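Is copper (II) ion placement plausible here? Inputs below.
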Amino acid sequence: MTQQGGSTGSDIPTRTASEPENHDLREVLLWWAGLSIIAIAVWVVVSSLLLPKAATADDVFANVTVVVFTALAIPVALFVWVFVGYSLVRHRARVTATAGRPPTEAAPAIVATSGQTIAWLAITGGLCLFLVVWGLFGIYRGAQVPTKHPMIVDATGQQWLWTFRYPHPAPNAQPVTSQELVLPVNHPVQFDVTSLDVLHGFEIRAFGITLDANPGSIIPTEVVTPRKIGDFTVRCVELCGLYHSYMWAPVKVVSESSYIAWLHAASHGSAQGGSST
Ligand SMILES: [Cu+2]
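Reply from A.M.:
I modeled the complex. Tokens:
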């Protein structure tokens, strides 16, 4: 283009009519739109099977965010890939270059009109703005203070297990410790997370909480309210040594009455994993 573009006597055929370029653009846009619709539809179905079931409103929001952000990213990524793929297939050089000379078949130059440039900037700018507003809304939701007082549970990591410590409901009684996390449904809970040795990561995916467990400091998680009775998992999400992948503990969300019964039994050291230290 730099050497030959302006010369009329060049042996490279140049396209003067805008017909073929418009045809190219239409075809690329059709491919892009079609593939985007198919990929988004596939993603919506696949994500409903892949994403773990949420047990708190925070995690429902986290799952929706994953679905929406990925659905928005699909057409952006495909716009690039379809363009590249189309150009590779449709405009590859059919005659190989000979020494010192470019191939004799020139692809049409891609020149954007100012309208297309403005449209591209407006669409991508609008997308970014949408993501910022979505994120701010997420932060605002997380900062909402629940009306009920949260129950505070200490979650302590060590190589390679988690220990949970509950305040005993009776005054002056020893706190209850357990290697499984039992929680009453519909009751807000907050975890004070720490570690006894190295850096661990405290995550309950179904509750939408992830936090570093640092030795020497106690960090509270946000307040979450489990809304579903069922079995979930606490995992360590920080590579913390040889048995890191075994560092998980069961989470049981149970009815209020079952929780009180469990706590009572655990405080007498008869619940599974229950003991007092
Ligand atoms: Cu760990």
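Short version: The chain has two domains: 19-93+106-142, 151-267.
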